[in-house]
Structures are given as C-alpha cells and as structure tokens.
Amino acid sequence: MTNHWIDYQHSDVIMSIGLNTAENHPVSMKWIDKAREKGGKFIVVDPRVTRSAAVADIYAPIRPGTDIAFLGGLINYAIERGLYHEEYVKHYTNASYLINPAFKFEAGVFSGLDDSKYDKDTWTYQTDAQGNVKKDPSLSDPNCVFQLLKKHYSRYTVDAVVKTTGCPRSAYLAVAETFCATGRPGKAGNINYAMGITQHTYGSQNVRAIAVLQLLLGNMGIAGGGVNAQRGESNVQGSTDLAMLYHIIPGYNPCPSAAAHPTWADYKAKTTPAAGYWINRPKFVASMLKAWYTDAAPGNDFRYDYLPKLDAKNRSHLGIFDEMYAGRVKGFFAWGQNPAVGGANAGKERAALAKLDWLVAIDLFETETAGFWKRPGVHSKTIGTEVFLLPAANSYEKQGTISNSGRWIQWRYEAVHPPGEAKSDLWIADKLFRAIRNAYTAGGAFPEPIQKMNWNYGGGDLDEPDIIKVAVEINGYTVADGKPIAGFGVLAEDGSTACGCWIYAGYYNDLNDPPAKRRSRVDASGLGMYHNWSFAWPANRRIVYNRASCDPAGRPWNPNLALFRWDGGQWIQNDVPDFAAGVAPEESAQRPFIMLAEGQGLLFSSAMADGPFPEHYEPWESPVKNPISAQQTNPVLFDFSLPGELAEVGSADFPYVATTYRVCEHWQSGIMTRNSPWLNELMPEMFVELSPELAAQKGIKNGDRVAIISKRGRIRAIACVTSRLKALSVSGRRVEVIGLPWHWGYAGFSTGDSANLLTPSVGDANTQIPEYKAFLCDIRSTPVDMKEDDINER
Amino acid sequence: MSGDMMLIDVTRCTACRGCQTACKDWNQLPAEQTRFTGSYENPSDFTANTWTRVAFNEVVNGGTMSWYFAKLQCMHCDDPICAAVCPRQALYKTEFNVALDYDRCNGCGFCQVFCPYEVPRVNHALKKMFKCFMCWDRVLAEKRPACVSACPTGALQFGFEKDLLPAAERRVAELRRGGKPRAQLYGAGIGRVLYVLGDVPEAYKLNPDPVPMLGGQVVELALRPLQALAVAGIAAKVIMDRVDQGEEQ
Amino acid sequence: MKKISRRVFLKLTGATGAAGGLFFLLGRRATDVAAQTPAKPLRIHYAREVTTICPYCSVGCGAICQVIEGEVVSIAGDPDHPINEGTLCSKGGSMLNLRNIYDPQSGKLVLNPNRLTKVLYRAPFGTEWEEKSWAWALTEIAKRVKATRDATFETKDTNGVTVNRTTAIAHLGSAAIDNEENYLMHKLMRALGVINLDHHARL
Lengths: 794, 249, 203
What we know:
Shape of chain A: globular
Structural class of chain A: alpha/beta
Largest interface: A-C, 167 and 119 residues
Strand content of chain C: 25-35%
Order of helices and strands of chain C: HHHEEEHEEEEHEEHE
Number of strands of chain C: 10
Oligomer: heterotrimer
Strand content of chain A: 5-15%
Number of strands of chain A: 31
CATH architecture of the domain at 5-229 in chain A: 3-Layer(aba) Sandwich
Radius of gyration of chain A: 26 Å
Structural class of chain C: alpha+beta
Number of helices of chain A: 22
Largest sheet of chain A: 6 strands, mixed
Strand order of the largest sheet of chain C: 1-2-3
Number of helices of chain C: 6
Helix content of chain A: 10-25%
Distance between the termini of chain C: 59 Å
Radius of gyration of chain C: 26 Å
CATH superfamily of the domain at 5-229 in chain A: Dimethylsulfoxide Reductase, domain 2
Shape of chain C: elongated
Strand order of the largest sheet of chain A: 24-26-25-31-23-29
C-alpha cells in the first residue's frame, strides 16, 4: 500500500478491483464508509456480487482475467476526454520522455520477442550526446511516452472493453465517468486491489495498469489516493520485507545470482543504479552482511561468498514444486504454510510431497501438508517420506511484530504461554539453528556460513531467545557500541554499521520507547496519520511518494488535505517527507518518485518482463479468442504445467470460467479457521456458486452436492445457486462464471475438497504468481457420493 | 447504564458477522454444528446457543439484484408477550431489555411459543430459556453490548432512544433522498431495538406484521376457557417433546 | 391464533436439546442474571488485559486478550486502536478459538482439542503419528538437514563461480509469522545455502 487504512476516509472515489474488501478486509469498510459519509463513491469491479458489491455505489461485473482491458479502457477514457491531471503528468511522470523509435507494438506483442523471452533493447529512452534523456515537454512528439501510451490504449474503446470484459456498457461508463473525475486537481481516487489482480499470468501488468491510471489522474502520493494492495495475510507485508522469497534478501535487495553477480563487485555494479535512492544499496547489503557475519569487512567482501547464489532455474513456489515433483528436492520445511491446499494444481503438489526424503511441518494445527500421507484415497504404506510435525505458538502466545498493509509495524505481546510443548517460531528457528550448528562441529560441506553466522540471542537450549536482540539486529546498530541506529541514513559500507533489514531501521531504535510499541493516539497531522502509533516503514512515513501531493511550487493540490505546504522558506509537514526537504520545492519536484532512477512515475517501464505497457491477454485457459489482439496469452508467462493439463480455447468439455476466492469467515487454506468452531458454524462446508440459468441448464438445485471438473482434477461441493452470478456476454457469446472458495481440505474440524485441485500450474511473467483466478471447468450434478478414486489426486 | 436502545442500520451492514462471534465470545456460547444449505446464512435459526444472527436475502427486482443483510435478535419489546405468558413470571421488562430470572425459569417454552419474532429458545436439558439479553452486564457496567462494540461499520449502535430515534429518522430521510424510496424505520414503538431499513421489512426477512397482540391481551385470552385449552395443549406438546428428546438421548 | 399455532410446531420440533450454555448457567452467571444488578463486576473486571494484533487479514486491527489465572477467556477489539477502534469482524472475533473453545457438551472453556501440543513424527511408510520430544526432533532434523546438504552442496557451479548452495532443500515460510521470526528463518535458510525459498507472497 502506498497509503494506509485510515487514509481511505479522504478518498472521493474508492475503486476495488480484484478485491472483495468487505469480506476479506472487513474493517476497511469502516474507513470506506467514512469517505462515503462525506460524499465519496465506492466502486466494486468483480465477477460476482460479493458482500462488497452488495454495498457499493456502483457495481461493474467483469469476466475473470480481463482487468487490463477494463483498466486500459479507463486510461483511454481519461486521455480521450482530457480528464487526466495534466500538470501532474507533465511534471511527475515520464510522459515527456522520448522512446527509441525502434520500439514497436504489433499483433499484440512488443518489439524484441524472442521465443518465450523479450529482448528489451528497444524499450529504451532516446538520449543526447551527453547521455541525458531527450524529452518533449509539450507531450506531442509521436515517440514521447504520452503519445505512445495514448496510441496503445486508443484500441481500448468502450466497445472493445465491453466485448472483452462482458461488463454491461452502462456499468462500465458509470465507472469511467466516476473514477476518471478524480483526475481533477484536488480530487482523490483510491484504487485498492488484491489477489483478483495479481493471480493471473499477467498479474503484474494488472498492477501496472492500476499504477498508470493513478499516475494519469494524479492520484499518487496524495491523501485519499494511492495504489493500495490489500495484502491477504496479517504479516505478508513483513514476511516480504524480510525476504521470505527466493529472489530477494531482506529489504528488497536482489538475491545474488551466479550468472549476474559472481562477486561482490559484480553485485554492486549490477544492482546499484546511477540515480535514485537505490544508489545506497551497497550500504544496505554490506550492513546486512555485517549483521550476519561478525568478521564481514571490506577486505573480505563482507563475506559475500557465504550467500548462496541463485542458479538458472526458477525457484519460486511453482518452480520448487516442479523440482520436488521431479525428485530433485529431498528435504522440505513447510513452516506455517499449507501448499497441499493453497498451492496451485494441488494434486501435483501433494504428489510431489511423496517424493521427499523428509518433511518438517511447523504449525498450530495438523495441516493437510503435514498429513498428506494419510489423506483420503492414498495408502500410507506406499509413502516413504519421513515427517516431523512441530507444534507452534499462536499469535498471542508469543511476542513480536507484524506489519500491516499500510506498513505499520505493530508489536504484540504474549498473553499466555503456548499450550503443552508448543513453542514460538522464534524458539524453533533458534533451537533448530543451534542443533544444525552442533551437527557441523564435526565438519561437513562448507560449514563456514553456519559456523560463523552471528547467532547469539540467549535462551540456552531450552528458553525463549531474547527477541529484543533480534529486533535491534533488524533495526540496525553501530558495531562499535551495539547501540541501535536512529534510521537507515547512517548506514555505511565500511563495516561500521550492521542492519538486518534497512527499511526497518528506526522501528526499534530506542530501547526504552521502541517506536513499534508506541500507542499514542495524538495525531498532530489531523489527517489520521497517527505518527506515534507504532512505526511505518520507511522512516515512519505514512504515505509514500508524498512530494507529489503538492505542485512543483510546493502548493498542495488539495489544501484541505495538505500533506505538505511550502511556506516560502520551509515545508509545513503533516507526514515524513519522501523527498529532500532541505532544498527548494522546484528541485524536489524533479524527483517525486525518489526510489526510481528517473525520479518520475513510470507510464512506460522497461522493468517488466512482458512489456512497457500493460496489454490485455487471455488467461492461459479461456473460453474465447483474445478479442483485442491476435496474441492469445502472455507470450512470456511461466508454464510449469504437465502435458495434458491445458483445456484448449473455447473447450466444449470445459465451457465455464472458474475463479477462486476467500470468504469472510475463513482464511487462506483454512487451517486456522476450519479449526475454529465459531467460524465453522458460520461457514460450515465447501460450496460452489453458479447462476440460476446455468443451474437450470445442468439440472442443479440449490443445496445439491455437485462435481466440478477441470483438466487437473475434480472436486465435490454444495451448490449455491445465486443470482449474484450472471452469464456475461463476451465476443457475442454467453460466458458463465462459477465461483469456488479455496479454504477446504481434509484436516481440521471442517473438511471438504480443495478448489486448488482444479487450478493450473502457470504463473505470472514477472512474479510467477499462479493463475488461480481464471481457468476453465465443467460442473455436473452427480450422485451425492463420488468414489474416492474419482478424485484426481495423483 | 450505557443506553436504552439498539439501532440496527442494515444499510451499513456488510454481513461480516463480527456481531455473531462477539456474542459467542462474550456470552460464552458453544458453536453450533451447521450445514451449508445454499445460503451464507448460518445458523439458520436461533438456538439456545445462538442469540443473534445475520439474515442474508437475495432480492431480484426488475433487472437489478440486491443482496440484503440484517442482524436479527430479540426485539426487547416494551410490552413483552413472552413476559406476559410466562407462568413463573421469570421474564420481566427493564429500561433497556427483557430480562430473565433464571432461578424462576423452568424452561416451559411458553415464551418461545408466543414470541411474535420467534426468538426465545429452550434448552431442554437445562430446562432454561435462552435469548439475547442485550448484554445487560455490559450495559450496566457502562459498556455497549458485545455485538455493538464489534461492529466495524457502525451498522450497530447503542445509546438512548432520545438520541437514536431522531438519528434513525434522519438516516431514513437521507436514504430516501439517496435513491432508496422504500427506506423505513422498523420496530419503532415496539421495543428497545430499532431498525433502519433500505427496503421493505420482508426484504430483510423481518416479519412485516408481527402478531399484533399486546401482552395483557394474551393473558386475557389465556384466561378464557377455549384459549386456556389451547395453552394447555401447547404445554402438553412441550412436555411430550421433552420426553421424546429425553428418550432419544 | 392461527399464526401462533403454526409456529408452535415449527419451533418446538426445532428446539435444541444440546447442553450448551451450561457454563453460562451453572457458573457465576446464573445468579447474576437472576439479579441483573450491577452489584457484581463484569466477568473480565479483574482480568489482565494484553494487547495483540489480529492474525488474519492485513488491516492490523488491535485486540485485547482478557487473561484470568493464566488463561485467555475472551478476546475483543481494542477500543484505543486507531484503525479498528474496538471493532472486529467474525474472524477477528473468533480469535479465542485459536487456543480455547467452549466444549459443546459441558459448555466449559477448554483447550482447542486440535491444537498441536507435542512434537509428532511419522516414520517412512508409517500409518500413525508418534509423539516425540523436542530434543529428539531437533537432533534428528539437524541430522537430516546435514545429510541432505552435505550430499548435494555445490561450492562452485560449472562455470567456476562460487555459489555455496544446495538445491535439494526447500523452505516455504509464512506470512502468518512475526517479523523477527521471519528474519531468523531467512538467516537460517541462507546459512544452509537454500535457494528454494518462498512463501505466501508468491501466491
């Protein structure tokens, strides 16, 4: 999130797309309602009438997987009618930059496509003899970003949008008119999204489309605006910040790869841009290595060699399970995650678990992953995987911080000790590391990274480690005296500072009054920033890119919601500035997007794997040919599917579009909520939602037990026949959409079939996030009991 | 006392059902075993362990469909029939609720039978009646009922009638101006629970015509021979059911 | 009377026979209800209040655990929290169940019977879980990790680049785990040379 929850109250229009906020982030509705009390409008774009759509001012139905068509249409609408924020676009985006004339877009693909990868040589700026980017401030040069953007999206006419998305014209136009009105200076439009946007083979481009629209409308960096990813778990923000991902190390620094970064010098050279805040990257990474290895120093490249280097394979979730399925992964830690239910094409993932030598599962309850060897339909005696299931403490049986979507790092305390022999994950990580280090005292393969790892948190063999020591290490400290650093500004590349995660610097910088524990309701900003309630990374900034809230002269676009105001000599501040506050406003106006090398919002971005502009493609499985171009699917998507797992375009056997989602009463793979009797009471069983028309055609009655089938598997569910779903008219065809919650599995108090037995192993071109949100299926009325072996679980 | 009335503005409800779990948590109520029968609404009825629940209703009107939500619970009538028919005078009216003296209650079920909102439920094993008591302990301790405290959107409010009734009337006027011509109050003058509706009561599964008998009239009826016979029949049925259930167990 | 008699049968046949509410009734509440007076303090009046943050979605709502005699007896929204201001949805409102539930038979607050309280182990080709001690489990897991790592460790790749990794161990972390824990887990895995590292953010 660029903004934060309380800030939603300042929006003139809130558009939820690919997000069911009333069900999955229910308390967000408190702040959306506050905006509405002041005349704000709430738009919901979703294939189903959800509990969000039920209370929205405007509801626009949309076929799953057509968000770029929808958003691209809005971009076109804003440009065509001159509704964009012209001054903002001119000053704060790369609209005026001239692009390499060799850059082309033809037949649905961008220049440089070579098999399944783009060569980005033409996705470049024109530069003058001095290497400066050429610009056309009038935005009229046919090669300037603005003109290219305009041309690209001129194809996204109202007709094209309606034909592709299936959204009724009147609903689409109501959204376009209402949301694009926020392009007026002083108006704020907020787009919030979640997995409905990201879980596609072009999910990152869905997000880009949101960002481009928000830049055009001047909605970035202002109160009530923003691109607000409503993250799905309590600490997915934090676990991402702390880099529980193959491709990064803490603080969004790339994980070194063997090909690109064999040495520390290569790493620094290739990951440090010429401009933008990332020029400080070497300080951040050197300080992290110093926190890890006490003897890290410039002379030994900060022990850079100790870090594992990535190989050429994709090591994301889908890639890991592909390797496991192939028998190349032998040991697996499922630490608070349940891929047997949550993983795409879960049948493949369950089968992969049987190929492991050993599995360590750590959770509050027995998960489907931990108990995969005794799931219905398999013979335990044929599965050789050794399984350790370790009991963990719940959220109020331990202490520590979690980071919410608004980047607030909040401390929670231990109310009670964990039951029985359950232990905090901190304890488990600490004792496990020590046990492994012990095992290496007698030697082994390259023991140095283990033996030399700075790991000294107290607690001995039995007691809880000292979490404050961990917190100070993450926050960072000066090596000489061990004192916490105030913020990341002091980090150095000389071994004098250690910092586990630079963006968290400041969250625990005062042992007596750690910001993460602060609970002051004093709000000096008057805007609901609450700077003394917890700590928001970076630097306790509540709205990022906030320089863009004022015009180049320092006058706020909206004086009533001023984050800053230049009074002639200094800035009047209602938030922590995301810019150099000591220079004249005209100077900081050059770089409102401080993290980017350009310093400007990117309407055109060469950072993406699949094109500088978002372009509509069809999902990997689709009922129709791409109505917008000849290119059916994202040409560079990640495909981990097995042979025979793809239903062809317009398949007669699998004629319906399925989408998966969560309900208010359950969470994720359900392992916490399906073990809650109170929640099971509210939402007791797996169900499938379908329209009354489809139900009638299939002879299905509300409450019937039915079967849902895809190329990957089949499941049973109870039919929820509902007029909340309606066939959409797509390219002149009626397309029925069915909806599946994905919370169920065979463990816990409430059991049921897992929707992810149906989903495909294909992923986004940039992030490899699987395409859970749009695939093809069939639905059949079947006898109540299906035989176990009918359930396709390889 | 933190108030004498609950206002349920269904137009602000998103059916997150925080009210249902908050009620269970505060009142220490076990969960029900339920089934999914084709609607999100669950439990599908009040029980001795479910004192409040959210009704879900899909209404298709012309080309548009609406999905309506309404929290249901005891209306805490100002002239409670349940109290009037209670043979042991266990139920009684206070400024903010219809309370129960559990020492007196013997679970006969008359209240359950006569309640026009079908709210009270008897736990036959315990021989006691259960329903929403407006979290009387919290209200007397100057806190709001648990469901009201939990409600994220302000669909539930608790306060004094002198403030809530005019606020509710203003809200109805606002809704009518804002494109909901059928917006109306429900429950005004009936008891301690007042609804703001965006549509007709039936759309929210609320009884548009709760049995229009005042408590006193019921008692009078019950004193007439014919009706007395009916009441006796009901009592017999209650007893028989309990015997049946006892045998089943 | 017609309306009433219709309901009679509906309701009486549907009346519950479960013994729920027993604790409510037989515990301190029964006499309280009889009196309905403020004479007695609330059941949480003497509880220790411990603040927490909801473990479900990412709004980050504050909640308060009410602790009596070392046990959590109720969890509700934190009225001081600026985001949720005391409110919680159904998931947040059910937080107590992550540890304790009301037993449907006795009505008493008991430990959620599905909570894991012991280390469990399943031997290869085994059909049951066996209970084990932590000391045993940590030692045995360390042995497995070392054996797999040592057998598959690459110090240099085919191009001679120092890579110090194993591709035979994988780790999925969690967005339900605290920052400090994630940090240690990340350190632990990178120290082992693990590059198969991912979690919920990828899904």
